[in-house]
Design a protein that fits this description.
heterodimer, A: 693 residues, alpha+beta, Penicillin-binding protein 2a (Domain 2), Beta-lactamase, 4 domains, five-stranded mixed sheet, five-stranded antiparallel sheet, disordered N terminus, disordered C terminus, B: 366 residues, mainly alpha, three-stranded antiparallel sheet, 13 helices, 4% strand, globular
């Protein structure tokens, strides 16, 4: 090795090596001097600083944006509240204090331990929340034990205040502490454990706008945990208030109209897609969620067979029944098939070796009276002539089987079957008999109330289809709006051309539905002096044959629908009503009529145009129902007369004076909001079972 | 004719003893400092790193350092490639690309480059044979160290890049630079640094902030100066005898940032006081003096230069880290060798010791 030999003679300069040694010694002495200055000379002052060095980062929580209705009425507000936090960086044995804390705050020791575990990895100076919304007594306990329990801290915050009794809860949603799962979701990358986040409804969709930005304050505390001063405050940025498209008055009317029936109502302006009212039943009280909900209540909510947490207006996918016949009529007329079709209805017809029932013996039926009478035989025949492919083509164009793109989380697309659908999802051929069922909105067809509102509202508007939304677009930046449409995909705004003549035929037919007349399905929902049209629907939950074999119960009652519009052409309002296991389709028609009437009356009132108090030209309705057995009285059948009119439905056991409404017959009917409209619908009480004719 | 006489009797056992004593103290302090943090259990990991390091040291001590010097051009080339690779495809941690992932191993090339540079500089100056340096020699030395230094600087990892400079400075001083030349270089360097600082282009604002916050930490006590203030309070409040193991309020209350790694000396000083801190400095002093003694007795210039390169790096790291902890130096993220938690740092130190041991064991080999 050449290099070895060369440098063997050379050596390091000993002087320089010695210089390095001295250099290192000097360095060590300088460092030691620094330590001496800090640890010996400065020990006392630094010890004091360490004592006082309790710079505690206290969050300043941003109030969430409020929600207003379209008229500026407040829907969701905040209220001041006090929460208790625990500080862990005091060098105290917190475990030993837990029983005392638990006692004073009325919580479980285990619950406190769980909170400590949950925040194990949070920075030491960050206080962790242990109880929200504490009472005055609990606050007094903390004040009184400042010395024994210096680790407890109270923080003022603003909490969500929702309307009572679940008013609009499906629409508004609720907030809660962010979950572990959400924290891993890229959408919530900027969120931290313990943050409050929108969990459903508008609260979820618009969380980024509503939440604002939390600030923080550096509080200096002494070794006893007492605050001795502030270093710096970073103010919270309050969340943005949002103006919803909801009309509080209409929402109220819809809530009252649906009562406690299992179902949903959507009211929308079909000209622009603004949702005016949205109700889902059963509902829940979101106020229970704004503070941590207890396990028992939560379990009750998620195991309830009626799914109170489900927003049925956008999530219930059910057979649309005869409401589908509007789409069938469009398809039939546009294809030139329905115009000259004449069918004789004798209570049903044979197709492909199977007898398909109709509700009545309608006699001679054509497209003009098929809609108001909802004659199944006519639509069986039309479906057979059109074939599934042509039906599916129109249904998909109008939005069946696709999300509407509403700005609410969890929307369901429904189902529109076709030959392709059968092949793709079931790997089977399409049976011709299925087409017959599809013709009356049964079989595999499924739709949500919102879809039906959009589709039928769109058809009544001449084929102008809208994207439903609950917040005005000018409440957000164009970028946010764009992102919103991407995150909530759906058919959105489309135009499907309908010929003028066909459009007239269909809208005329729908107008007839709510006119009194033989076999007209919603004559009893007639509104005097209001241009009101619609279509009813009854969807069997079990087949005819099965039903005849099994005992009739509430659960075997068909789901009933109504979709109404006003005015009947180019409507300003479309309302879809779903009542699960409701039994008869004229019930939801009456419910829809109440919403329509509330809308028209409000509009007229605003225009100073309200007609003088109506002499109730109410429709006289007879009904038969069973009354459940009570003490000393077995189950029995009762009959009676009722008046429908003036936005109200009155019981009239004896011919009643319409000016003096009868008291509600069913005292158990829970009325969700203070009963401003004074509605009493005795035969619709939840416990009464209807007798199938 | 050439007798290969390599015996573990010639192994520097006293040096290894002091090193292992520091390692034991380190593991104890990592245990204490991570007791209430999410890093709990890191002391066992550190034990495994140390054991791995010891094995690596023994293996390296068997390799003839001349063989390593012959291979230096290869090492150097691979280092440059690795640094470029890490810039292009490395894992991004806290805004800087420093890590490269090979299988399950995370690998931080900039640490290993330290060792390569020590060998490269030793080979370079040994080949010059101790003669007076020309300006050409000095320029080549600058290029030799400057190329990898710039690659690390743009990762950006200013801390590690800084560690390369004492290798160059040590090489120049011991390799035969004249006093006149060194004065000229010092003045030029000062002017250059001044220029870079004020150009506002090369250093990122946060790097500047970090470098200056130690001078006036009270300007922004919860921001940039936070680390410095908390560290000084930790050290100062330790007093003469310290607060005791796992009893440092600064350490245990999470006031001290990363108390098991960069700020481990502050944690130790808080819990063991002035006496404990001085003891650590003494151990480092012993290690450095012992290393310099080995450099004096090395068989040839290249062996001496290798050991002095290690001395330069270790001395610099102690100065910057302890200086940072007591507020004399900016916060740069340079670990304290043998004390701070971290696999790359531990392995580098033991590999360097392995080479030193080999130089020592070959001191009588002619």
């Amino acid at each position: 090795m050449q290099s070895d030999r060369m440098d063997r003679e050379a050596k390091l300069s000993p002087i320089r090596l010695t210089a390095v040694q001295y250099g290192i010694l000097v360095m060590m002495l300088v460092l030691a001097g620094g330590l001496w200055r800090l640890q010996v000379l400065g020990a006392d002052s630094y010890r004091l600083l360490a004592e006082q060095n309790r710079i505690r980062k206290v969050p300043v929580l941003a109030p969430r944006g409020k929600l207003f209705d379209r008229d500026g009425n407040i829907l969701v507000d905040n209220y001041p509240s006090v929460s208790c936090f625990l500080i862990r960086d005091q060098g105290r044995n917190i475990e030993a204090d837990l029983p005392m804390i638990a006692h004073g705050l009325n919580v479980d020791v285990e619950q406190l331990r769980a909170a400590l575990r949950h925040y194990k990895y949070a920075p030491g100076y960050q206080p962790i929340p242990i109880k929200q919304d504490i009472t005055a007594d609990e606050q007094a306990f903390i004040e009184a034990h400042r010395f024994e329990l210096p680790e407890l801290l109270t923080i003022d915050e603003e909490r969500r205040l929702y309307p009572r009794d679940g008013f609009a809860s499906a629409l508004i949603g609720y907030v809660g502490e962010i979950s572990e799962e959400d924290l891993n979701n890229p959408r919530y990358a900027a969120y931290e454990p313990g943050d409050v986040v929108g969990k459903a409804g508008i609260e979820e969709t618009y969380d980024e706008l509503l939440r604002g930005e939390d600030g923080s304050r550096d509080v200096i505390v002494d070794s006893h945990g007492r605050e001795v001063g502030y270093l710096r405050t970073q103010h919270a940025k309050p969340g943005q208030d949002l103006k919803l498209t909801i009309d509080n008055d209409l929402q109220k009317a819809a809530e009252l109209a649906l009562g406690d029936r299992n179902g949903a109502i959507v009211a929308m302006d079909p000209r622009n897609g603004e949702i005016l009212a949205l109700v889902s039943r059963p509902s829940f009280d979101p106020n229970a969620f704004s503070v941590r909900i207890n396990r028992a209540d939560w379990n009750k909510l998620i195991t309830d067979p009626d799914h109170p947490l489900m927003n049925k207006a956008i999530q219930a996918q059910l057979a649309p029944g005869s409401t589908f016949k509007i789409l069938m009529s469009v398809a039939g007329l546009q294809e030139g098939v329905a115009q000259n079709m004449h069918v004789y209805c004798s209570g049903g017809a044979d197709f492909y070796g199977h007898y398909y029932h109709c509700d009545e013996h309608h006699g001679a039926v054509d497209i003009h009276n098929a809609i108001p009478m909802s004659c199944d035989t006519f639509y069986y025949t039309l479906a057979d002539k059109l074939g599934i492919d042509r039906i599916a083509k129109y249904a998909q164009a109008f939005g069946y089987g696709q999300k509407t793109g509403i700005d609410l989380p969890g929307e369901q697309p429904g189902v529109m079957p076709s030959q392709q659908w059968a092949a793709k999802y079931y790997h089977r051929k399409w049976y011709a008999g299925e087409t017959i069922s599809v013709g009356i909105g049964q079989g595999a067809v499924e739709a949500t109330p919102l879809q039906l509102a959009r589709i039928i509202g769109g058809i009544a508007s001449g084929g102008h289809m809208v994207r439903p939304h609950t917040v005005f677009a000018n409440e957000m930046t164009p970028d946010f709006h764009k992102a919103l449409e991407q995150n909530y995909p759906g058919v959105g705004e489309t135009n499907v051309p309908i010929d003028q003549d066909n459009w007239m035929t269909i809208t005329d037919g729908m107008a007839e539905v709510t006119q009194p007349g033989l076999y007209h399905t919603a004559g009893s929902a007639h509104l005097d002096g209001i241009d009101f049209a619609g279509k009813t629907g009854t969807a069997q939950v079990v087949g005819h044959d099965t039903l005849s074999k099994m005992a009739k119960t509430h659960a075997t009652n068909p789901n009933v629908w109504f979709v109404g519009v006003t005015p009947c052409r180019n409507p300003e309002l479309v309302v879809a009503v779903l009542w699960q296991n409701g039994g008869f389709s004229y019930y939801p028609a009456r419910i829809g009529a109440q919403v329509v009437e509330a809308y028209v009356e409000k509009k007229r009132r605003q225009e100073g145009n309200l007609p003088a108090a109506k002499t109730t030209a109410a429709v006289d309705v007879g009904a038969v129902w069973t009354v459940p057995g009570t003490k000393g009285k077995s189950e029995h059948v009762e009959a009676g007369h009722f008046f429908v009119g003036g936005g109200q439905i009155f019981a009239a056991k004896a011919p009643a004076k319409p000016e003096k409404p009868a008291q509600p017959v069913s005292p158990k009917l829970p009325i969700p909001v203070s009963a401003q409209l004074g509605i009493a619908i005795p035969w619709l009480g939840s416990e009464e079972k209807l007798v199938q004719p | 004719m050439m007798r290969r006489f390599l015996s573990f009797r010639d192994f520097d056992w006293p040096l290894l003893g002091v090193v292992l004593l520091l390692c034991v103290i380190s593991v104890g302090e990592i245990y204490s400092a991570t007791l209430n943090t999410k890093f709990t259990g890191f002391h066992t990991k550190q034990i495994f790193w140390i054991l791995g390091g010891i094995v690596a040291m023994f293996i390296f001590s068997r390799i003839n350092y001349h063989r390593l010097l012959d291979l230096v051009p290869w090492f150097y080339g691979f280092s440059l490639i690795a640094l470029v690779a890490v810039k292009l495809g490395g894992t991004k941690v806290l805004g800087a690309r420093r890590w490269i992932k090979i299988g399950p191993m995370h690998f931080q090339p900039s640490e290993w480059v330290k060792l390569v540079l020590i060998l490269a500089v030793a080979r370079y100056f040994a080949n010059l044979g101790g003669r007076r340096l020309t300006w050409g020699d000095i320029l080549k030395a600058f290029l030799l160290v400057g190329l990898p230094l710039i690659l690390v600087l743009i990762q950006p990892d200013m801390g590690t890049a800084l560690i390369y400079t004492p290798i160059l400075i040590g090489g120049l001083l011991l390799g035969g630079i004249s006093i006149r030349q060194s004065l000229i270089l010092a003045v030029t360097g000062f002017v250059l640094i001044f220029g870079i600082w004020n150009s506002g282009k090369i250093l990122k604002p946060y790097q500047k902030d970090r470098l200056t916050s130690f001078i006036n930490p009270d300007d922004d006590p919860r921001g940039k100066g936070y680390h410095v203030i908390q560290s000084k309070i930790a050290v100062g409040s330790g007093g003469i005898w310290g607060k005791g193991i796992a009893k440092g309020t600064q350490t245990q209350g999470n006031f001290l940032p990363i108390p098991h790694a960069d700020f481990i000396f502050a944690a130790f000083s808080e819990e063991h006081g002035f006496v404990g801190a001085l003891f650590i400095l003494l151990l480092y002093f012993l290690i450095l003096m012992r290393l310099i003694q080995n450099a004096q007795t090395a068989a040839d210039l290249s062996g001496s230069l290798i050991i002095m390169g290690v001395v330069a790096v270790v001395t610099f790291q102690i100065l910057v880290n302890v200086g940072m902890v007591i507020g004399f130096m900016p916060v740069t993220g340079i670990p304290l060798p043998l004390m701070s938690y971290g696999g790359s740092s531990v392995l580098f130190t033991f590999l360097a010791l392995g080479v030193v041991m080999n130089v020592r064991m070959r001191r009588f080999v002619n």
